Amino acid sequence: MWMTILTKTNKTCQLVLAMALMAASCSLAHAAPLVTAFDARAWQDDYVFLKQQLQKQYANLAWFASPQAKVNLPQLDAYTRKALALAENDEQAKAVLRNFIDAFHDGHLRLITRSSNTTPTPANATESEPLAVAIENMDVENACAAIGVGSTSRVPFSLPLESLPGFALLSDGATQAFRAGIITTEQGSKLGVVRIPRFREAEYPGLCAQAWKTLSAGKQNITAKQLRNAMADAWFEVLAAHLVRIKAAGVQAVLVDVGGNGGGNDFGDWSARLFTSRAVYSAPLLMAAGPIAQAYLEEELQAMRKAYEDSKFAHTAQRSTMQAAIALFEKARADMPASSCDLSWVWQEQRPWQADGCANLAKVGFASGPYAYLPTSTDTETSYASRMYWAANVDKYRGSWTGPVYVLTDRGVGSAAEAFVAIMKDNAVIKTIGTVTGGSGCGNMQAIRPIVLPHSGLSFQAPDCVRLRADGSDEVMGITPDLPIDAITGESERARAARVIKTMERDMSGINPAR
Asked: How much is the pTM?
C-alpha cells in the first residue's frame, strides 16, 4: 500500500518514508497495546508546528530549499503529509517525522532521544542545579574525572597507517596526545602523519595530567576553570611540538588524519594556523535571525566593551580596531529586523541559494569572531586581540609547520572538524584525500533550544548557525576530496591505507594519481 501511494516521486524520499512506515508496522506486531488512542490530527498539527519552528530557528533551511542542496523540500513535505495521513498508530507517525528530519542529512539536525518516554518535563518541575564540584583538594585522577575528561574517540589512525612498512612511531596518542609518526616509503619519500581524533581538550586524558602537574608546580589552589584553560593551551602546545619534531626530521609533507572526527569546539578553526605561516582567514558566520542571533550579538558586545574599557594602555591602533568591531556588531544588531523574513516559501518552491536573500540569516562576524584575520600579536596584546580574533589565543604556535599538507577525511568528519578542513582548503593550505565529509557544518553558537512538539512531546535539535565556504556555499553540503580514495570491494583497510600514501606520494611528484 505504501509504495502505491508514493509512486512517481523522488526515490530517496519515497524509500525513506515508505520504509519508515513499514518498519514501524512490523515492530508493532510484537508491541504492547497502546495506552492512548491514536490521534492522527494531533500528529499532523505537530508536523505543521515543526515546520513553523524550523522556519524560525533552523539556520540551514534556505540552503536545503535551493537546487544546490539536492533535497527537494516541496516534494519531501508532500510525501511526509501523505505518510502521516496513512499512519495508523503513534509509532508509525513518529517514524514519519523522524525520517522527515533524517532526509535533510544534516548532522546537527536530529531527534533528541530520551531514555524513558517522549513526554517533556514541565518547565516548573525542573530540579535545582547541583553545586559546582570543588577540585582543589582532589588528586589528579579525581579532578580530571570531575571536569569530564575522558576519551570517546578513536586514538589510532582512522586507517592503519601505523601498520605500513617504513612507519616509525613518535607518539602513541594515549600517554601523549595525538598519535604521530613518520613513514618512509619504498620510493624514499619521507612523510609525517599526525592524528587529530577530536577538536576538544576533554577528549585527551594525558593532557589533564600534564596540565595538573604544571599548575601544581605553582603551588596554587587549582580550580576547574584553571585546569580546563591549562588543558586547552597544552592541546595546542603538544600538537605544535609534534609538528616541529616532524619538520626537524626532514619530512616532505604532513598527512593530518581527521577521519571519524565528529567535531568539538573552536579548536577546529584555530588549529589551521599551526599548519602555515601565511594569513588564514576564517569563514563568514551567519545565524538564524531573531532572538538567538540577538542574544549572541549582545553577549559579544558586552565582552568587547569590557575588553575596550580594560585596554587603557593599548595602542591607539588597537583601540581603533576594537571600536570598529563594536560598531560592526552594533550595526548587525540594528540590521536584525531587516534580516528576518518568512521562510514558508521553502515548502512550495526551490530558489537558488542566496545567503543575503530571503534566508532568515543575520551576519554576525566570522567563525573567529568579529574579524576573519588579525596579524600575530605579542603576549601583551593577546587579551586585546583574542576578543576580536579568537584564534589569537594560539598566536605563539602559528606556523609550527610550513610545508605541504594533506588532510585525510571520511564520512565521519563533521562540525568543528569540517570547519578545520574547510578553512584549510579555502585558504589553499591543504589538499584533501579520502572521501566526502559528513555534512554537519556549523552547529550552535548559543545554548540549544529544542523544538518540542505540543502533542507528541518529540524534541528536535536544530543548528542556529551557518559557516560560508569561499564560493559562498553552506558548509553543511560537505567537503569533496581533491584526491578521492573510495572503498574497493574486497580491499582491506590496510591496503586502503597504503593506497592513501601512494596517492599522496604521486600527487607530490606531480603525477596524476588516477593514472
From this structure: 0.88
